[in-house]
Amino acid sequence: MRLLYFHTLKISLKGVVGFYKKFMYNLPTHRMKTIWFHTASVGEFNTAKPLLKKLIKDYRIVLTYFSPRAKDYIKRHPEYYHSLERLPLDTPFTVRSFERKIEAHAIFIMEREFWPSFILFTKAKKVLLNAYAKGGLYERFISRKFDLIITKSDKDRERYESYGCKKVVSCGNLKFLFEERQIKEMKKGDFKLFVAGSTHNGEEKILIEAFGELKKRHPDLRLLIAPRHISRSQEIANKVKGFRCFLRSRQRGEEWDILILDTLGELFDVYALADVAFVGGTLVPVGGHNLLEPAYHGKPVLFGPFTQKVRDMAEYLLQKGAGFVVSRAEDIIRVVDGILSKRISYNRVDISQESERIMSCYYSNIRDML
């Protein structure tokens, strides 16, 4: 009987060990404090890169992602983290197990990744970065679980403070930060280039219509369209009529009028080649994308009226004389033609001073909390 008991106990313990090997994790052997840093998407990762580059000098970074597209992209940039993992399933057990595995000293979350178990059942200090407020009972409840919230604007800070959050600081938009980098070598050729980046469905039709008229006035002008979702690239190309149109991945030196950028990670460098740029998500009610990327290269930036997600950037560029609001094809024709013909002037902006202020604000508040 005793032998049977010990045999049963051995089997049970073996099962428990197997369970923990599968669902729990070996403890790390590092000495630096660990930051669990969550960026759900490619865009959030790119926004966080300058801050990650600074943090990784002093902290162990365990980066988590959500979308498969983000994984494929982030894996190509291992210099920003020590370990890359998928965000655990949002249950109390899995998030706590993962937190114990990595020995997280703090959890950093970008913008609005308000997963309930992730936030409610982890024990480490929590920081919300590049935060903006949209309102609602859930936001009011979940935001009070953060130890530090760093917002994009004073308006967002005031909203979070009204919720009774522990500590809220307004440092500015992380998208104003650009790391020093070697621009990818890209040759343009002897032509003028209009780059339309991060475009959405409904915007390409307007841009192509405007390009048709602009091409008559400027025969050496070419249009490069970089859709926000590259899975739409072939669909966009199929709609182009009357122009030589190619996908970037399939273009083999042929002459082109319109090029669809269906590759990841090139848009920032392509903006450097532009004579004039448009940033999408602004002619349709998406709210806009990073208006500062073309401005970083000193380019004039066109954008539509829907800039609710990037309002601070839009106001900054308009104030500096580097931005132009367009609402329809006729507006695009007028502004682009005016810039190319030098009838409309613009200012080249230097955002380095603002970038330094924002980085200093973020890093000092993070260090104080850690």
Walk me through the structure:
- Its main location: membrane.
- Belongs to the glycosyltransferase group 1 family.
- This is 3-deoxy-D-manno-octulosonic acid transferase.
- GO terms for molecular function: Kdo transferase activity.
- The chain has 370 residues and is an alpha/beta fold.
- The chain folds into two domains: 162 residues, Rossmann fold (3-Layer(aba) Sandwich), CATH 3.40.50.11720; 159 residues, Rossmann fold.
- Helix content is 40%, strand content 18%.
- The chain is built from 14 helices and 14 strands.
- The strands form two sheets. A seven-stranded parallel sheet has the order 3-2-1-4-5-6-7, with helices on both faces.
- The protein starts with a helix and ends with a helix.
- The N terminus is likely disordered.
CATH class of the largest domain: Alpha Beta
CATH superfamily grouping of the largest domain:
3-Deoxy-D-manno-octulosonic-acid transferase, N-terminal domain
- Per the principal axes of the C-alpha atoms, what is the gross shape? globular
| Straight-line distance between termini | 56 Å
CATH architecture classification name of the largest domain: 3-Layer(aba) Sandwich
> Which structural class fits the helix and strand makeup?
alpha/beta
Helix-residue proportion: 25-40%
Strand order of the biggest β-sheet: 3-2-1-4-5-6-7
Rg (CA only): 24 Å
Secondary structure tally, helices: 14
Number of strands: 14
Secondary-structure element series: HEHEHEHEHEHEHEEHEHEEHEHEHEHH
For the largest beta-sheet, the strand count, sense and barrel status come to: 7 strands, parallel
The CATH topology of the largest domain turns out to be: Rossmann fold
Organism: Hydrogenobacter thermophilus (strain DSM 6534 / IAM 12695 / TK-6)
Keywords: Cell inner membrane, Cell membrane, Lipopolysaccharide biosynthesis, Membrane, Transferase
Function: Involved in lipopolysaccharide (LPS) biosynthesis. Catalyzes the transfer of 3-deoxy-D-manno-octulosonate (Kdo) residue(s) from CMP-Kdo to lipid IV(A), the tetraacyldisaccharide-1,4'-bisphosphate precursor of lipid A.
Main location: membrane
